[in-house]
Design a protein that fits this description.
By secondary structure, the chain is of the alpha/beta class. The protein is built from twelve helices and seven strands. The longest helix is centred in the middle third of the chain and has 20 residues, at 157-176.
């Protein structure tokens, strides 16, 4: 199984859209895909029509078993999405209480890793949607992944958020005594504005060697897809957003 985490310590940069878009494209290629929602806000869960305030089983169940995950818990937690071949472990708002209740318990930083280990032969790819805060949930996602995707909105305020994220990556990797391959993904790029153009130029200068060569453009079809609970490739595979995510996936898979 290939495990990718999609993370940034700034919200509203396109994390959930990237998880859904890339996951759907992988599923359309015939891969077995699992999406993992670790954000207490539950944007990924809501994307597919589930209420994080009311969902009966979620990622929270995995943490409540203190890292020991019975098979019946896993079977209850995994649900289907609107994309064939793509399932999901949803989030509940109860995840927000983990920091206070269980973060100091032994093994809490490896719950996601242990979960994916039990599912290793069932899926080809797992994509993890993360919260925008450094804590036990983000630590779990970084510990589990082999590739880290960092979406960054192409506007100046996002640059500081990226700086914090890169520092967090370095800190966590030092504590875990390993490296993680990360790639910065410029999002919401609007070639009509100088702010977007200048921010993209700055990103490429400051993160040379770790930044995708293209960008995800502003595209209202991405918002339309979210509203309908579909991936952009399901709604309009010829849209600018769908073509951009297809190009990104080729880069991530080393096909270009």
């Amino acid at each position: 199984m290939h495990v990718w985490s999609i993370a940034n310590q700034k919200g509203g940069v396109g994390k959930t859209t990237s998880v859904v878009s890339l996951g759907a494209l992988l599923a359309e290629q015939g891969h077995r895909v699992l999406l993992f929602d670790l954000d207490p806000q539950g944007s990924l869960t809501s994307y597919f029509g589930h209420n994080p305030d009311e969902i009966p089983h979620s990622a929270f169940d995995l943490f409540m078993n203190q890292g020991k995950i019975p098979d019946d818990v896993l079977s209850n937690v995994i649900i289907k999405t609107t994309v064939d071949g793509m399932n999901m472990i949803p989030a509940s708002t109860a995840l927000a209480t983990l920091e206070r209740n269980v973060s100091q318990q032994e093994g809490m930083g490896l719950v996601v890793s242990k979960t994916l280990a039990k599912l290793w032969d069932d899926y080809d790819y797992a994509l993890i949607d993360t919260p925008p805060l450094l804590g036990v949930l983000l630590i779990n996602s970084l510990a589990a992944c082999k590739k880290l995707l960092v979406p960054v909105q192409t506007e100046f305020l996002a640059l500081k958020g990226l700086e914090r994220m890169v520092n967090t990556i370095a800190m966590v990797m030092r504590s875990q005594k390993r490296d993680v391959d990360y790639i910065v993904i410029p999002t919401m790029f609007d070639r009509r504005t100088q702010a977007s153009i200048k921010t993209l130029k700055t990103l490429r200068e400051q993160h040379e060697g770790h930044i995708w060569h293209s960008a995800i453009p502003v595209d209202t079809k991405l918002r339309d897809a979210s509203r309908e609970g579909k991936a952009i490739s399901q709604l309009d595979h010829n849209s600018r957003g769908a073509r951009a995510y297809s190009l990104l996936l080729k880069t991530l898979l080393g096909q270009e």
